[in-house]
Amino acid sequence: MDKPSYVYILASGPYGTLYIGVTSDLIKRAWQHREGVVAGFTKDHLIKRLVWYEIHTDITQAITREKQLKRWNRDWKINLIQSTNPAWRDLYAGICG
């Protein structure tokens, strides 16, 4: 089995600004967003809350899914988040444990 890959959505807060990304190390990448160690969109817009993610068996699948989600309209993305995380909890602590 290949190393797992992740597609994730971060939010600035409930119903806030959204960011979709892909990574092979979700804990490290989420930490980088939270701490603002990489300049860019998430740092500029204070997008730190991990509100949704899914696991893929290879990076190609994850990249394909990321591109699909980025084409979705905002309502679909919100519905996706709400389907598994209706309170918009920050899932970061749960993945570190």
Tell me about this structure:
By secondary structure, the protein is α+β, with helices and mostly antiparallel strands. It has one domain (5-96): GIY-YIG endonuclease (3-Layer(aba) Sandwich), CATH 3.40.1440. It is 44% helix and 22% strand. It is built from five helices and three strands. It has helices spanning 26-35, 41-44, 59-71, 74-84, 92-96, and strands at residues 5-11, 18-23, 49-56. A three-stranded antiparallel sheet has the order 2-1-3, with helices on both faces. The radius of gyration is 13 Å and the shape is globular.
Number of domain modules: 1
How many E strands?
3
CATH top level label: Alpha Beta
The CATH topology, please? GIY-YIG endonuclease
* N- and C-termini, Cα separation: 23 Å
Tell me the number of helical segments per DSSP (H or I, 4 or more residues long). Answer: 5
